[in-house]
Design a protein that fits this description.
- By secondary structure, the protein is mostly helical.
- The chain is 74% helix and 2% strand.
- It has a single domain, classed as Helix Hairpins.
- Strands 1-2 form a two-stranded antiparallel ribbon.
- Helix 1 packs across helix 6, helix 4 runs antiparallel to helix 5 and helix 5 packs across helix 6.
- The longest helix has 35 residues.
- The radius of gyration is 18 Å and the shape is globular.
- Keywords: Membrane, Transmembrane, Transmembrane helix.
Length: 219
C-alpha cells in the first residue's frame, strides 16, 4: 500500500470540496429542514480535506482539529438546542477555509516544476476562494437585515447551497442576477470576489505557462 506523501495532498482536498458542493445541492433540493444533515456533511468534508496534510505539519493539523471541534460543538448546540451559536460556527468555518486556502496557495505558487499535484492544487485554491466568500456572505446574512435580493432570511445551513451558488457565479463574473447585494458592505465583498477571481485566473495561468516553459528549456 502506498504511503501518503506531500505529493498527494491536493487530491483529498479537491475530492472533499466536490463532494461537499454536490451533496449540499442534493440535500437542498430533496430534503427540507435538513440542517443536521448539512452540518454532518460539513464536518465530514472538513475532516476528509485534512487527510492529505503532511504528517509533520503539526501546527496546521492542530489548527484544523481545533476549528473542526468548534464547528461540531457550536453547530450541534445551534441545531439541537435553543442557543443560537451560528456566528461562532460560521467564523470557525471561515477561518478553517482561509487556513486551507493559505496553505494550498503557498504550495501551489512555490514549486518551479509543474506537476499534476500543482495543477490540482490551483483548482483547489480557486474553489476555496469561492467557499471562503460564501461564508463571508452567510455571516452578512446573519448580521444585516436583507443584505441580498433573492435570499430569504432563514437558518444559515438552509441557505448554504444558495450562497455557494451565488459565490461561484460572482467569482467567475457570470452574474445571472437572480441573487444580488443590496447594502454597501455586501456590494464591496461581491466586487472584491469578482476581482479576485479574474486576477487569480490570469496570474495562475501565466505562472503555470511560465513554469512549463522553464521546465522545457532545462530538460
Amino acid at each position: 500500500m502506498k504511503l501518503m506523501t506531500k505529493d498527494d495532498n491536493f487530491f483529498f482536498l479537491l475530492g472533499s470540496l466536490l463532494v461537499l458542493f454536490f451533496l449540499s445541492a442534493v440535500v437542498h433540493q430533496f430534503k427540507d429542514d435538513a440542517q443536521d444533515y448539512v452540518l454532518a456533511l460539513l464536518v465530514l468534508c472538513m475532516s476528509t480535506s485534512i487527510v492529505g496534510v503532511h504528517r509533520k505539519q503539526t501546527f496546521y493539523r492542530s489548527w484544523y482539529a481545533v476549528m473542526i471541534t468548534v464547528v461540531v460543538i457550536s453547530g450541534s448546540i445551534s441545531v439541537f438546542e435553543d442557543y443560537d451559536l451560528s456566528l461562532v460556527t460560521m467564523f470557525a468555518m471561515l477561518f478553517f477555509v482561509l487556513a486551507q486556502t493559505f496553505s494550498a496557495l503557498k504550495q501551489v505558487m512555490m514549486p518551479r516544476k509543474v506537476t499534476l499535484n500543482q495543477i490540482v492544487g490551483s483548482i483547489c485554491v480557486y474553489l476555496l476562494f469561492g467557499l471562503s466568500f460564501a461564508f463571508i456572505y452567510l455571516i452578512q446574512l446573519e448580521l444585516f437585515v436583507a443584505p441580498f435580493n433573492g435570499l430569504e432570511s432563514k437558518p444559515w445551513l438552509d441557505n448554504l447551497f444558495e450562497v455557494i451558488y451565488f459565490s461561484f457565479i460572482t467569482l467567475t463574473t457570470v452574474g445571472y442576477g437572480d441573487i444580488s447585494p443590496v447594502l454597501a458592505i455586501p456590494k464591496f465583498f461581491v466586487f472584491l470576489e469578482s476581482i479576485t477571481g479574474s486576477f487569480y485566473l490570469a496570474i495562475m495561468v501565466a505562472s503555470l505557462v511560465s513554469s512549463h516553459l522553464s521546465q522545457k528549456e532545462t530538460s
